[in-house]
TrEMBL record:
Name of the gene: aroQ
Annotated protein name in UniProt: 3-dehydroquinate dehydratase
ATP-binding listed as a keyword: no
HAMAP family: AroQ (MF_00169)
UniProt-annotated binding residues for substrate: 71, 77, 84, 98-99, 108
UniProt site positions, description: Transition state stabilizer: 17
Family: Belongs to the type-II 3-dehydroquinase family.
Length: 139
């Protein structure tokens, strides 16, 4: 099984940025945990702050992987282009958010990508990625 994890803008700063919201662990540290916890899954990890690069990577893995975990960051609330990219690929996408976006600013309450995703996990910290993997592994 192949699962791609794609993180969007500012998620390269995990462990440094707003630790009260996002925690003190970097994603690279957490990624190692996922690899140990799911030894039968082949993971790829991609992060970019650039919308077009995220779209290109969705296109690259979106026809051959078994699942995609996508934390589009702020692009969740603004990017019709990422929504269209998800709609155009065959691999199912799970929307992931570390914080509870519904307990934050009102503009974060609307996800443009949610209607094209198989589900959404938010507010459970980095554990949301593990739960997303479990969805694809168990399903």
């Amino acid at each position: 099984m192949q699962i791609a994890i794609i993180n969007g803008p500012n998620l390269n700063l995990l462990g440094k940025r707003e630790t009260g919201i996002y925690g003190s662990e970097s994603f690279e540290q957490y990624f190692k945990h996922l690899q140990r916890h799911f030894p039968d899954v082949t993971f790829t990890y991609y992060q970019s702050n650039v919308e077009g690069e995220l779209i290109n990577y969705l296109h690259e893995v979106g026809f051959s992987y078994d699942g995609i975990l996508l934390n589009a960051g702020a692009y969740t609330h603004t990017s019709v282009a990422i929504r269209d990219a998800i709609a155009g690929i065959k691999t199912p996408v799970m929307e992931i958010h570390i914080s509870n976006v519904y307990a934050r600013e009102e503009f974060r309450h609307t996800s443009l990508i949610a209607p094209k995703c198989v589900g959404c996990i938010c507010g459970l910290g980095l554990k949301g990625y593990q739960l997303g993997v479990e969805y694809f592994v168990i399903d």
